[in-house]
Write a structure and sequence with these properties.
- By secondary structure, the chain is an alpha+beta fold.
- Helix content is about 15%, strand content about 40%.
- It folds into 2 domains: about 110 residues, Hotdog Thioesterase (Thiol Ester Dehydrase, Chain A), CATH 3.10.129.10; about 140 residues, Thiol Ester Dehydrase, Chain A, CATH 3.10.129.
- A 12-stranded antiparallel sheet has the order 1-5-6-7-4-11-14-13-12-10-9-8. Strands 2-3 form a two-stranded antiparallel ribbon.
- A hairpin with a 2-residue loop joins strand 2 and strand 3.
- The longest helix is centred in the first third of the chain and has 15 residues.
Length: about 280
């Protein structure tokens, strides 16, 4: 990248404490996307941040207890292929030496390269006599142990062999950055990925966590306090990685956003080993 690394201070929000992995508070992937989109748009005003490609979440950014701010670095630069590449980094001091850790990266494109496509998933509820039903209260107590403000899935989550269907509600957390008027509330997508996590736990003995995806397309921004529907499909799996597509709709069936090729793994091992997820 030709651009210099720009220092950026993340203000720790009260709801971050409700998002933990392996007992550690970590910056949510949805917040990483908001941050990089905001910084990238400031440097490249014509980029279309509603479309994110080849997104990767590297090493989890841990938030120490009682932290008020987190010092990070942001890279954002135009590429020769016409895309804009953004990264979230942090610097770790090790005596006289320092080390850079990468926490996330996104490729953005310009509007003329963006083609709107119909989602491959539809908002219709799952049907059939073999459906599994999981109450959202039990789900957040046993399967996705996040705190109250990240308990976005509501009522009952329905599971078939390779699909999940559920209702979402964005908490009444106001927008704190102008970029959210474009990208919407981060909570519905976080909740939709909880549905993917629960669907995946039918096949593996761990809670899978997103480490990246192929493409996210935001058609309409989700709003605080509003209700939505999500449908998730598992598209492939190996013992170490599950892959999903998902879509978020309103009650009338209008699509708000789609995400394809979501890669999910057991990140607890990576946290213990203290090595990047690749």
């Amino acid at each position: 990248m030709s651009d210099n690394r720009i220092p950026f201070t993340i203000k720790v929000q009260p709801w971050f404490q409700d998002h933990s992995v392996g007992g550690r508070i970590v910056l949510p992937a949805v917040e990483t996307m908001l941050l990089l989109a905001s910084r990238c748009l400031a440097l490249h005003p014509k980029v279309d941040v509603r479309v994110m490609k080849n997104v990767r979440f590297g090493k989890l950014l841990e938030i120490p207890a009682n932290a008020v701010n987190i010092a990070t670095l942001v890279e954002c630069a135009a590429q020769s292929d016409g895309q804009v590449h953004a990264k979230l980094l942090s610097r770790i001091q090790m005596g006289a030496m320092s080390r850079i850790k990468e926490h996330g990266e996104i490729f953005f494109s310009y509007p003329q390269e963006t083609k709107e496509q119909s989602p491959t998933l539809d908002p219709a509820p799952l049907t059939g006599g073999t459906l599994k039903k999981i109450d959202s209260e039990r789900l957040y107590q046993e399967l996705v142990p996040f705190g109250p403000r990240y308990r976005t899935l509501q009522e009952t989550l329905y599971l078939s062999n390779y699909h999940a269907w559920g209702r979402l509600k964005a908490p009444e957390v106001p927008f704190i950055d102008p970029i959210q008027s474009v990208l919407g509330s981060p909570f519905p997508l976080d909740g939709a990925m909880h549905a993917a996590c629960v669907l995946g736990q039918q096949f593996v003995g761990y809670p899978p966590f997103p480490v990246g995806f192929s493409k996210r397309h935001i058609i309409q921004p989700t709003q605080p306090g509003s209700r939505y529907i999500t449908k998730v499909a598992m598209t492939s799996r190996t013992p170490d990685e599950l892959v999903f597509d998902l879509a978020i709709f309103d009650s009338e069936g209008q699509v708000y956003e789609t995400v394809t090729g979501i890669r999910m793994r057991d990140v607890r091992k990576a946290m213990k080993k203290q090595v990047p997820i690749e």
